[in-house]
Task: inverse folding
């Protein structure tokens, strides 16, 4: 799970230059192969649990099938097959987590993973600062390959620690963990996770209000405040970007988006094939790098990345699945009494915001992808169980009514 979050990579992957990426580096490739083999050794003996989980993960199976079919029109089929193999492992890990762990157990597990990563980052800062900071821009990356991977993992950690149930004596430790995650995001200079956390803080009254009968009235104030903040941000964008140390091109991302959108319009419906556009042999990565004067290696937007892989068809299917999962998460939150029932909605909101500037939706060996799949499995299993309980209750009530009607009839017959 640490490697899914992007952690520990700088300890095993050498720095070979800003143009090299984790996927193209030989050490990273060998590491991925080793992870693939270890995952298969772990998952194959548990095939019956995976099959049971796949019944609750049919939306994920549909998404994976669309990505798998893209090998037909992929220009670099070897790269697509290579990426699909790792995506299949990620899907299997997500399904297994969804079958074996409840939402509260997933939160606890994620807190352990992020806690280890945070301790490793602080340890590197103290004892090996040349490893903790990026050698090219000086930003804090800790035991992660980039500062944005560190920021994304710590953002998920802050959310998970917040919703983690804690006894009275452990609340101070939980607050310290949240403060550590936020501090690492700030020192990493990763803005998207901070924006995601700020949005969740602004929506906190609305999220809590979903549990009450008057939640519609409670939604009005935070939504109005959020819309007002967005309008204020839009009309003062330049001042905001200067304040957070960014330029009007979002540190070079907007030129990348412009080039990527232009290429999406060339093949709008089916895309270029899963994992094919940014493959080295396709030549698109070098082409984009020449135009934007830096090597992005990805779209830096999850939705654009999906469009490049499987076009608007895949994007529509993904958004439909996301909307269904979000609706189930809201229902769970509205009817739940546990603190952990608030986590799915917070996770979905944060993940979508973070993917406005990063590409982590349906990506192979990605922590947010595995957690999203696990959440799909858990919510669908809960929904199926609720429907079965409702059906049995309805049959029981109908049986009671039938007995009540037959009683007087039998008495009159005698």
Result:
């Amino acid at each position: 799970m640490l490697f899914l979050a992007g952690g520990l990579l700088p300890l095993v992957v050498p720095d070979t230059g800003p143009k090299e990426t984790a996927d193209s580096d030989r050490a990273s490739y060998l590491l991925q192969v080793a992870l693939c083999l270890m995952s298969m050794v772990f998952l194959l003996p548990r095939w019956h649990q995976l099959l049971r989980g796949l019944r609750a993960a049919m939306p994920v199976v549909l998404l994976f099938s669309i990505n798998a079919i893209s090998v037909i029109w992929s220009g670099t089929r070897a790269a697509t097959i290579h990426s699909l193999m790792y995506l299949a492992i990620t899907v299997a890990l997500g399904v297994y987590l969804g079958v074996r762990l409840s939402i509260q157990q997933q939160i606890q597990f994620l807190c352990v993973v992020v806690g280890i990563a945070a301790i490793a980052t602080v340890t590197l800062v103290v004892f090996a600062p040349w490893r903790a900071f990026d050698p090219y821009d000086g930003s804090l990356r800790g035991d992660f390959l980039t500062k944005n991977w560190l920021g994304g993992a710590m953002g998920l950690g802050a959310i998970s620690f917040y919703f983690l149930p804690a006894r009275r004596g452990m609340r101070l430790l939980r607050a310290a963990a949240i403060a550590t995650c936020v501090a690492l995001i700030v020192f990493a200079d990763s803005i998207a996770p901070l924006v995601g956390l700020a949005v969740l803080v602004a929506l906190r009254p609305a999220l809590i209000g979903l549990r009450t009968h008057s939640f519609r009235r409670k939604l009005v104030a935070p939504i109005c405040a959020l819309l007002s903040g967005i309008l204020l941000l839009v009309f003062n964008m330049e001042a905001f970007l200067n304040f957070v140390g960014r330029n009007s091109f979002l540190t070079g991302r907007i030129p990348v988006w412009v080039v990527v959108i232009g290429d999406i319009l060339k093949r709008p419906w089916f895309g270029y094939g899963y994992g094919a556009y940014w493959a080295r042999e396709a030549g698109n990565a070098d082409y984009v790098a020449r135009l934007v004067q830096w090597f992005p290696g990805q779209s830096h937007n999850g939705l654009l990345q999906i469009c490049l892989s499987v076009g608007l068809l895949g994007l529509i299917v993904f958004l439909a699945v996301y909307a269904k999962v979000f609706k189930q998460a809201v229902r769970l939150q509205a009817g739940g009494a546990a603190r952990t029932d608030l986590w799915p909605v917070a996770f979905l909101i944060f993940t979508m915001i973070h993917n406005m500037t990063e590409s982590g939706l349906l990506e192979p060996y990605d922590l947010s992808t595995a957690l999203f799949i696990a959440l799909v499995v858990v919510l669908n299993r809960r929904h199926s169980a609720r429907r079965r309980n409702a059906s049995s209750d309805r049959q029981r009530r109908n049986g009671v009514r039938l007995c009540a009607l037959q009683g007087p009839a039998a008495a009159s017959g005698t």
Summary: Residues 16-24, 234-238 have pLDDT under 50 and may be disordered.
